[in-house]
Amino acid sequence: MTTDTVAALLASKIKADMIVKATDQEGIYTKDPKKHPDAEKLDELTFNELIRTHRTPRIQET
């Protein structure tokens, strides 16, 4: 389990309003830009837009 997953699970448990994630990437991409040179940078992505795409977040309790 990644640290991002643990953070999301904990945020879900405590009903957090927000998760702040630090990264070495300058933005949100359609794919991992380190592995996919054709990855497109998204200037903005709302939760509803995320749900409408195939990048549906999944949080599972273990």
Instruction: Describe the largest sheet.
Output: 2 strands, antiparallel
* Percent range of helical residues: 25-40%
What is the ordering of alpha helices and beta strands? Answer: HEEH
Beta fraction of the residues? Answer: 5-15%
In DSSP terms, counting alpha (H) and pi (I) runs of 4 or more, how many helices? Answer: 2
Number-wise, the strands total: 2
N- and C-termini, Cα separation: 10 Å
Query: For the CA atoms, what is the radius of gyration?
Result: 13 Å
- Rounded average pLDDT: 77
Structural class call reads: mainly alpha
Strand order of the largest sheet: 1-2
Which outline best applies?
globular
Runs in which pLDDT lies below 50 for 5 or more consecutive residues are none
Detailed description of the structure:
- The protein has 62 residues and is mostly helical.
- It has a domain at 18-56.
- 27% of the residues lie in helices and 6% in strands.
- The chain is built from 2 helices and 2 strands; from the N terminus they run H-E-E-H.
- It has helices at 3-13, 47-52; strands spanning 28-29, 41-42.
- The chain has a two-stranded antiparallel sheet.
- The longest helix is centred in the N-terminal third of the chain and has 11 residues, at 3-13.
- The model has no long low-confidence stretch (mean pLDDT 77).
In short:
The chain has 62 residues and is mostly helical. The protein is 27% helix and 6% strand.
What are the SSEs and their pairings?
Blueprint: H1 3-13, E1 28-29, E2 41-42, H2 47-52
Antiparallel strand pairs: 1-2
